[in-house]
Amino acid sequence: MIRLNDRTFDVFLSEEEVLQQVRHLGVQLSRDYEGKELIFLAILNGSFMFASDLLKQISIPCEISFVKMSSYSGTNSRGEVNELLGINSDIRGKHVVIIEDIVDSGLTVDKIHSLLGVHGAASVKVCTLLFKPDAFLGKCKPDYIGFPISNAFVVGYGLDYNEKGRNLSAIYQLKES
Ligand code: IMP
Ligand code: MG
Predict the structure, then answer these.
(1) What is the pTM for the complete model shown?
(2) Which of 3, 108, 131, 170 is the most buried (most CB within 10 A)?
(3) Is 63 inside a domain boundary?
(4) In contact, 108 and 84? CB cutoff 8 Å
(5) pLDDT tens-digit profile of 23-53?
């Protein structure tokens, strides 16, 4: 059990469980993108740890770039997505895999998808560590999913609660008070 600000969280996925699934995703992506011009686009801040571990499992040549988006405040999505650091890589003709820590409403991924369209990507797919299918309202369903989870709020492994908890190596779930 851990405490962040005013809330208590219980372990939900251990570091070993997370890393095992990250390895599987890496193997799958390396197989699917063999021979293709591949660029990963990691969405900051939340996906930094997942992106780092996932990229170590990619056995084919690839590029990595970062975009920064923000839609959350506390434990609730604000429903609007802001672009804080834009797409500055040359992605024309390249196969893009968006890396997300979690797809919740799906609005962040939809926004990036629409931005990528005008940049001329050859294809765009989404790889997310966590997916909340019951909260999903978006158009672009994730193509690679580490763990489908319930609607409960989670932290750790890059995910935050008011910017705290990103450094934790396991994933924790909010304890109902
Ligand atoms: P979406 O646009 O609603 O899909 O939200 C995506 C972003 O909201 C993610 O990249 C996370 O940064 C954040 N988010 C969604 N659910 C959680 C959660 O349970 N814990 C922490 N952050 C979350
Ligand atoms: Mg995020």
Answers:
(1) 0.92
(2) 108
(3) yes
(4) no
(5) 999 999 999 999 999 999 999 999 999 999 9
